[in-house]
């Protein structure tokens, strides 16, 4: 792509992690592996570093970021944990759960991290490389998915480079992400009520219905878009369509030939990236049952199929 920065690819070794940590401490941008998708990390306590995330992604400034923490003690310095929030963290961290909590007064966080909201989104990821990096920096790291705003999320270092090469200092290559769709986002309200803002790998209650405002802007109708028309629930593709299969629908690439939903989630973005790269002008996707993690898969597919306005 050719940008301002020569993006380094760092191996997930002790040396690579130390180099990533040094870049982050200086206020630079490093794409990092997590168990869900790759994140674009910057130190969350420094306004200039956080501003660079928005700039590199082309992300609208009203869309707040998730802050990643090494452990629950660090999380408690940033947000107010009610008993309900503490119980959720204890049960599901480290893991693909993001908690939206009241921001703690005096928390060492750049204001732009939460885009002016009184809340903060926190997550303790379950990926050994990301955990080692969080411990090594000793800093909370803001990290949205490592893709240009609105496009397909990355589940390997190559996907990151496809959209951010030259715009960030480095990518820390930790291989392919296990779960493959972004974390479940849950808001814990002051009265203890829990609202699911984004479905994800962790299955938790019913998704909030009929919200009248965009509270987690990842919930914008068009998102995760491969840059060509996407048609859903297709069993027979047209000639000009790249078909993403599932179960008995074979397609040009398959989410899971055996119909396994976990496998389908882990391959979702790789298949969308392949469809985006192919010479076919359109993408079609086989039906995927909306059960379990299939709910998150269908959520992302619907947004990928909605044209941006
Ligand atoms: O799995 C994940 O969550 C990945 C990895 C890298 O951790 N991150 C991720 O970040 O998906 P991003 O920026 O693509 O999505 C973050 C979502 C957005 O929809 C944003 O609006 C929402 O989190 N969010 C962040 N802070 C929030 C807040 N204070 N209140 C409500 N929603 C918030
Ligand atoms: Mg994203």
TrEMBL record:
Function: Required for the formation of a threonylcarbamoyl group on adenosine at position 37 (t(6)A37) in tRNAs that read codons beginning with adenine.
Catalytic activity as recorded in UniProt: L-threonine + hydrogencarbonate + ATP = L-threonylcarbamoyladenylate + diphosphate + H2O
Keywords: ATP-binding, Cytoplasm, Nucleotide-binding, Nucleotidyltransferase, Transferase, tRNA processing
Subcellular location(s) per record: Cytoplasm
EC number: 2.7.7.87
Naturally occurring in which organism (per UniProt): Qipengyuania gelatinilytica
Superkingdom of source: Bacteria
Predominant place of localization: cytoplasm
PANTHER family assigned to the protein according to its UniProt record, in alphabetical order: SUA5 (PTHR17490), THREONYLCARBAMOYL-AMP SYNTHASE (PTHR17490:SF16)
PROSITE patterns: YRDC
Name of the protein: Threonylcarbamoyl-AMP synthase
Domain YrdC-like: 14-202
Family: Belongs to the SUA5 family.
């Amino acid at each position: 792509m050719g940008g301002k920065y020569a993006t380094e690819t760092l191996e997930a070794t002790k040396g690579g992690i130390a180099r990533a940590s040094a870049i982050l401490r200086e206020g630079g941008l490093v794409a990092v592996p997590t168990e869900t998708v790759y994140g674009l990390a910057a130190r969350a306590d420094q306004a200039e570093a956080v501003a660079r995330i928005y700039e590199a992604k082309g992300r609208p400034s009203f869309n707040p970021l998730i802050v990643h923490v090494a452990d629950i003690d660090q999380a408690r310095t940033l947000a107010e944990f009610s008993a309900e929030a503490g119980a959720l963290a204890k049960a599901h961290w480290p893991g693909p759960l993001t908690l939206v909590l009241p921001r703690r007064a005096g928390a060492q966080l750049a204001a732009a991290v939460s885009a002016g909201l009184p809340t903060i989104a926190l997550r303790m990821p379950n990926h050994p490389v990301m955990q080692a990096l969080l411990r090594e920096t000793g800093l909370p790291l803001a990290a949205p998915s490592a893709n240009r705003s609105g496009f397909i999320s990355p589940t390997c270092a190559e996907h990151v480079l496809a959209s951010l090469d030259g715009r960030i200092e480095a990518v820390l290559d930790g291989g392919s992400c296990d779960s493959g769709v972004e974390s479940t986002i849950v808001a814990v309200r002051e009265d203890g009520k829990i609202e699911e803002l984004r479905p994800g790998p962790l299955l938790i209650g019913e998704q909030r219905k009929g919200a009248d405002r965009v509270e987690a802007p990842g919930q914008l109708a068009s998102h995760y878009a491969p840059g060509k028309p996407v048609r859903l629930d297709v069993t027979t593709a047209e000639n000009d369509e790249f078909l993403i299969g599932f179960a008995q629908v074979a397609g040009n690439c398959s989410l899971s030939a055996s119909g396994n939903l976990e496998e389908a989630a882990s391959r979702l973005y790789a298949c969308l990236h392949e469809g985006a790269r192919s010479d076919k002008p359109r993408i079609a996707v086989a039906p995927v049952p909306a059960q379990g993690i299939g709910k998150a898969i269908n959520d992302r597919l619907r947004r990928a199929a909605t044209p941006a306005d």
